[in-house]
Structures are given as C-alpha cells and as structure tokens.
Amino acid sequence: MRIKASPISSPLFLCLILGAIVVSMAWTALPVERGLMFNLEALFEPVIATPEEAVLYYSWWPRLCISLIAGAGLGLAGVLMQQVLRNPLAAPTTLGVASGANLALIAATLFAPVLLASGREWVALGGGAATMALVFALAWSRGLAPMVVVLAGLVVNLFVGALAITLLLFNQEALKGILVWGAGSLTQSGWDGTAYLWPRLAVCAVLAFLLLRPLAVMDLDESNARSLGVSVRQLRLAGLGLAVFITGCVVSVVGIIGFIGLAAPNIARMAGARRLGPRMLWSMVLGALLLTTTDLVIQHLAGSRSAMLPTGAMTAALGAPLLLWLIPRLRLAGNKPTTAVSGFTHRHARPGRLALTILALLLAVVVLALFLGQTAQGWGWTAQWSILEWRLPRILAAAGAGIMLAIAGTIIQRISGNPMASPELLGISGGSAIALMASIFLLRSPDNVTLITAGTVGALAALAVLVVLNRRSGYIPERLLLTGVAITALFDAVRSIVLSGGDPRGQQVVAWLSGSTYYVDLSSGVFIALVAIVVMAATRPLARWLDILPLGAATASSLGIGLNASRLLLLVLIALLTACATLVIGPLSFVGLLAPHLARLLGFSRAREHMLGAALIGALLMILADWVGRQALFPHEIPAGLVASLIGGAYFIWSMRRR
Amino acid sequence: MLSKHLTVLLQSIAISLCIASGAAQASAEPERRVVTLDWTIAETLMGMGIKPQAVAQLSAYHDWVAEPALPASVIDLGLRTQPNLELLADLEPDVILISQMFSNIAPRLSRVAPVEMLQLYVPGTDTWTQMLQLTRDAARLVGQPQAGERLIDRTEAAMRAYRQQLPAQTKALLIVQFIDARHVRVFGANGLYHAVLEQLDLENAWQGETNSWGFSLVGLEELLGVDGQLIVVEPAPLGVEAQLADSGLWQALPEVREKSVITLPPVWSFGALPSALRFADTLTTALVDRHAD
Questions:
Q1: Shortest CA gap A113–chain B (Å)
Q2: Is some CB atom of chain B closer than 8 A to the CB atom of A631?
Q3: What is this model's ipTM?
C-alpha cells in the first residue's frame, strides 16, 4: 500500500504554519501584559508568589512541554509501526497497545490496587506489551504479514475492549479516574510527567535512528530485503518493540491519545518526505505540533471546562474525518485479498442432514433457556408465565440478532473472500452507537422509540459514508473495511468523551454499549425473529452471486453480473441487517464473524448452505450467550453481546493461533 | 470558652439522639413491599425507617452510599440500569420507585408492579426543595406520609442546630473530590453539597458552571486563585495521596502549604436528606474543630 505523491514539496512549509499557530495561541494564553521576560522567567527561575504564577509554572508550561513530547513520541511510534508493517494504517491505537494498557489499568484498579501504588506506568506498559505480544503471536505463523497483523490487532482490540466494558459495567463509580485517563487528558500539575517522559523518548529516538538503515531496506520488496541479508522477522520485532515501548510510556503518562500516531507519518509522507530518515524526523515534528495545536485550541475554546473535553479523545474525533479522506488515496493491492486464507474448504457429504442436527440442537437450547434458570429460590425449572414472559422475548431477539448478523457476516466474508471480515467491522454498528449516545445525552429521558429511531438514523448515516466513499472505487472489500475502521475510531472517541465527564447517565450508555437483549419486549421479540426468518428466505436467491463474486471481477462480469450493482445491493443488505441486530445486542459482538466461520468449518461450503448453517449457528450462539449471561452472575446480568464477544473473541484468537 | 464547648457538645448529643430515634424505627416492617432501583430513593426510605424489599446493585450501594446501611435481608436486584426482571416478577412487589434516570425501562417495570417516578436533580429547580418533595412523595407512595414529615422535621431541626454551632466567620468553601492526582470533581450549584451549604448559610466558593448533578470535572489548576477553604471529600483513588506529594500545583495551594485542608469521610454526593444530614454533620464538626484550634 502506497500513498500517491502530493504536489507539496516539503513538510517544512506545513510545520512552519502549525508552528506559527502554536506560538500565536500560546502568546494569547500567556499573561503578555507582564512581558516576555516574565513568562520565560516563570519557566526557568520561578518565583511562586501568586496563584497565577503557580498555574503558569506547574500547569501551563508542563502541559505545553508534555504535549510537544508526547506528540513527537506518538509520531515516532507511528512511523516505526507503519514502516515495519508496510501499512499506512498501522498505529498504536489500531494495533491494540492503547486498549491493552487501558484494560490493565482497569483490572489493576479493581483487583490489585497495590500494583498502581508501585507505578501505574508499568501496569500500562505491561498491558500494552501483552496485547501487542498477543497480536504478534496471532500473526507469527504468517511471518507477521501486514494485513494479518492489522486484522489481528482489530480482533484483539475488540476483545480487550469487550473485557474492559464488562468490568466497567459493574464498577462504573470505582473506575471514574480511569475513564478520565483513558480519554487522554493533558492536564498537568507539576513537572513529574515531563521528567519521566523526555529521557525515555530521547533514548528511543536515538535507537530508532540507529535502526534507520535496515528499516529503510523494508521499502523494497520483502524478498529483496531478504536477499540483502536482512532478517525481516527480527527487524520487524525490533521496530515494533521500540514503537510499543514509546507508546506505553506516553500512554501511561497522558492516557490514550488517538490519531496522532496515525496521522503524523501519513501527513509527512504526503507533504513530500519520501525517504525514511526525513519521514521519521518530520513525523516527530508534525506529531508534536498537531497535538500541541489541538490542545491549545481546546484550552482556548473550552476555558475552565477543558477537562471535560479530553484532548486525546478530541484528536481521535478530529482524526476520523482525516482518515476517511485518506482511505480513497491509498493504493491498495488490487481486488484480491492480501492474504489468501483458505483453511476450511472441505464440504460435508450431506449438508442437509447436518443442518437438521443443528436445528435439533437449537430447539433443545431454546427449551433449556426458556424453562431452566435461577429465581429468588435458586435454580429450577419454571413454567410460570409471569417469569417466562421475560425470558421468551429475549430468546427470540437473541436468535433473531444472531441470524441477521450471521447472514450479514456470511455475505461479507464471501464477497471479500476473507474469513476475518465481519459486519461489526464495517462501522455500521459504530455509527448507530454514536447516534444513540448523542440522544441519551442531548435529550432528557429519551424513550425506547426515540432511541431506536436515533440508532437507525446513525446506522444509515454510516452506510451513506460507506457508499459515498466507496462508490467510485467499486466497493472493494478491503477499502470498505478500512472505512469501517475509521467510523469505529470516531465511535471510540465519542465514547471516551461521553464517559470521561463522569455523568451518571454514562451508566446507561455503558449498559447499552455492552449489548443486551434486556430492552426487548414480546412484540418486538417476535418481530425481530420474524424479520430474521424472512431475511433468511429472501437472501437465498442471492446465493448465486455469492458463489460467483469471490471468483473475481472478470468471471463475474462474464457471467453477466453487474459488479457495482450487485455489490451495492449486498452492501445495503449487510448494513440493514447489522443495524437491526446492533439495536438489539449492541455494537460489540463477534457473532457476525464467528457464525459463518464455524459453519464453514463444519463443512457448509456452497453459499446457500453456508448462509443456512451460519444462521442456525448464529441463533444457537446468541441464545446460549444470552442464557449464560443471565445466569452466570445472577441477579446481575452480563449482556448477551458481551458474552458472545468474549466467547467469539477467545475462539478467534485460538483459531488464528492454530493456523 | 468552656461553656461554648459544652453547648456544642450538648447540641451534638441532641442531634445524635434525633438521628438515632429515626434509625430505631427501621426494624418495623413496611405495610407495602417496596423496591427501588435508585440509591438516593433507597437511602431516603431507610432514613424514614422503611426497609425496602429489594434494591439494585447492593454491593456498590454499600461502597458508595454506605450510610444508612441496608439490612442484610434486602434483596439485590442486579444492575441499576438493568434490574433482573425475572427476579422482580418473582418478588411480586407492591410498588417500584424509580428516578427519571430509569424512565426508559419504566414501561417494562410497570408490567410487574405500579411504577412511580420521583424527580431529583432536575436542572433549574432548587435542589433542597426537590429533596423535600422527593421525601414526601416517597413517604406518600409507601403509605406512610408521617414518616416523611418526621424525616424532614428531624433534618431541618438538625440543620438549624448545625447553623448555630458553626463559627460566625466561616470562609467560603471549595468542595472537591479526587478523580485522579490531576483532576477533581468540584461541587457547585444543583448539587447535594451546595444545597447543604445553603441550608447552613455557608457560601460555596465555586461559582463556575456545573452539570445537572451539581459538579464539574476540572484540572487542579482551576482551584488556584479560587478564594475559599478547601474541603476534600473522600474517597480518593489509591495512590493519589503519594502522587499529590510530588505535585507542584497541589503543593502550591495555600491551604496545602499551611496544612489546613479539611478532609471529610465519604458521603454519597448524589444523595438526598440522609446524605445531606451526614454531610452537614461531618462538615460542621470539622469546621468547629478548625475554629477551636
């Protein structure tokens, strides 16, 4: 993947503009009337007599310094990751380092607070390194190939995020500090953060420049690099390790700062820094300036409320549109999936009989989930309608959502020929989640109809973005997924901003995000299940396309299938199915990923039987997940979406490892 | 001087007796089976001596509200936002009390038992008046209106007593709670602490904006230059104390340098009358002690 050349000659021009903005914004923020010398003296020879001077010395100057240092560090980490993975979309946030650090801090706060007392940076570093190691482990057997690493990062991100949300759901009050940190606040109250960060980053920068020459060879093809005697794997490990260490240090001090690590290297490259050396240098400068500019603007606009608008989440929110703009400018490796994955192509001798077996199993699980469970008196079989009336709609909704996600997943996996593709990753669930959070916060006491309307509007908006950005390129599957990554990034940012304020309504947001069948009543449960069954029947004629599209553009055209029209239709179908399912079980779920995968593994290979098998398995998984979630911590309920994503995520991590 | 201390002591005893007399009635079984999702309503019920049948998220209630403690026989309903409906149906309560935060599940709850929504922390209304209204509404809904009046009388009597105990010249107060070593929640208009300050004729030093729950999340630097006696409400997250020792900004605060920061034990900051009473009690004791030094 390469970025097209840009007419701007050098990043210098851009840096000068940003630098001028920083200086002028800083100038207006400082008490200028007391003269330049006073302000500089406040930095070097502080005389702290008035509150104003204390704020200047202990807060304003450290904040400026830490944003410059952190920005430079993230820029460096980004350029290393992108160079090593030869993927312009690699960044600390996309590879799971940030979410791993977040989870580690949450877990430590709840279960081992002693660790925090001895140094929270080490907890964050440990968590980030562990998730990154997991991503490495998953991609190791494919020689850390770029696309595999990014997809593994995505799966690990979702999995770790689901774990974090589970803990958050039950401990929101205890975790309010972590939420502020997780949103990336640059607020400083002394020089300790700066003193911690700068020596570490200085050492890392020196090491990075020592790695410069071997890393530059990676600009060549992998085989060429190997023939030049460079051990690609070890080099990647060294580069990524360094990037993780930098990220861990930055993240532990200022929290999760989105987008800088992604944007700075890309902007530097587009602005004309082609070779690795200049790119590293300019990425650091640009990263520092971008973060500082954003932070100064936020401080200026928000005034005393700037803690409510955490800089890290704001950069991520601003970065999402840039990412969307960037995607059409990436030259992707054609129409063919980057990694040909064809693990499970065996076909079951009698798929019909297999489907009947699964159906029987499904019915057995329905009976179990309906009648067996805990009440005030403990475990038991219950046939009282007053209790069943709460269980039945949830079973119907879980089954319906499972079916819809499974069908959507089957379609996208078949047209992209990539078993790692999933409707959750398209960003449609992210879009509807953003709209739901907005309506919870902007409207007073919204009812369920309002919430569902808002969610649908959000899902359609995300769909519109997907269509507009991908229409010209002909809906290339990888590009669609990347658009989804951008929308998901925006969703993460909005979530961080919303939760960091500590508003008690955040509880409601967390409850919804975790994806529960809780809010379904009987009529909507029946409706969801009916829709799912109708969709299952209606998609059967589309099976021909799904058998042919993966064979390639040429085959499909020669068989008389309009490529763009059929892809658009399938896309709309996927989007609607995902939106419906998301409204029921939330944006975090691996069912759309897992069900088609399992169906294929069991031997449903042709499109028609694949869809049927996936739908049955999806329903089975969701009903089980819903039941386990209701019983495991009774009377507390773990939402079905979370249970599904924990099971599904664990399965995926295991199966990727095995291959 | 001695006589003044004696008066304070006697008043404290009188107030304690007042509070204790309310608690003593808690053992009486209510006539109706009442469940609530909201901790603020739960503490109001307990303050009136009415034991709810079930409350949501019990363990977190004990962590964050703590007082008045719920008896062990109260049943846990699960998460506040997603109470266990199967369990609720099984318990067959007579009435379910909720606040507007749970309005989205009210239709579902109403299929189990009649749901009554009590208003609290509505922007643009006086918090104290609303707390009194909440108490009266809750008492009426559980069929014991006189219990509500008793709680109100007791609280107002206690507030009057505290008002008299307080030193005449008290600085404006700046009330914060640590989120981490760099951020605090500062409590202002619309909140419980602010309402208590108004009752005690004390001034709140934080005149800035707050959200509907009466607080604002700010960095430590916002506290500098605000002229007021700094009050820290516990709990602080673990490790914050150690970090504050290294925090230049914190050490630069005049009260920190003079070691005159007042630390108060945890009080549920989104509570109603019982929490208000507890906060007023600890605050008054701390201010009187400070004045006596």
A1: 7
A2: no
A3: 0.76
